[in-house]
Amino acid sequence: MPSIPETSFALISGSGSWGVDFPAGAGEPGITVVERALAFDTPHGRIENVSVFRIAGSETVDGRDRLVLNVFAHGWRPGVMDHGSFLQTFWVLREARVRKIIAESTCGSLNRAVRPRDLVISSDIVAFTQTRLTLLPDRFTYLCTGAQVFCPAIGEALKRAARSLWPATPR
């Protein structure tokens, strides 16, 4: 069983990377795969499809290489409908000493202002959970809350990069 690599950075990849051999298939310069198909045993069960990739210093602001732990498909397990995958994922990220996480996902919208291929960068979250007692029994045992769920610095960096690559079109 491989040991969990120590790194400050993680990507929780979702359906946006399902159709691509991510990260190699993205064809981005300075990105190399270090390890693939890693699996780790956690107190909450086994997590699979974890990979590690390196971002070359030539692609970072400070010129230093970055090692990134990538959890495929949000850590979900095929055919299993529970929230154990989240416990497994965040146990591994804690053991790796991850401090910065980017999670990506594709989704639809009922809002006509959000069009196909729009990039939405979240800055806040609305939680409708009233108390721990309103959660479904045997479905969601733990409630995760945070004082700052979204990092404003990462959000601003994503916004600047997106605007430089995809200029806004009038609507």
N/C terminus separation: 53 Å
Indicate the mean pLDDT.
79
- Count of helix runs: 2
Overall geometry: globular
- Could you tell me the radius of gyration in angstroms? 18 Å
Show unreliable segments: 131-136
Strands side by side in the biggest sheet = 2-3-4-1-5
The main sheet comes to: 5 strands, mixed
What is the N-to-C succession of helices and strands? EEEEHEH
* Percentage of residues in strands: 15-25%
Helix content: 10-25%
Short description:
It contains two helices and five strands, in the order ββββαβα. With 171 residues, the protein is an alpha/beta fold. Residues 131-136 have low confidence and may be disordered.
Please tell me about this protein's structure:
- Residues 131-136 have low confidence and may be disordered.
- It is built from two helices and five strands; from the N terminus they run E-E-E-E-H-E-H.
- By secondary structure, the chain is α/β, with parallel strands linked by helices.
- The longest helix has 14 residues, at 152-165.
- The relative contact order is 0.17.
- A five-stranded mixed beta sheet has the order 2-3-4-1-5.
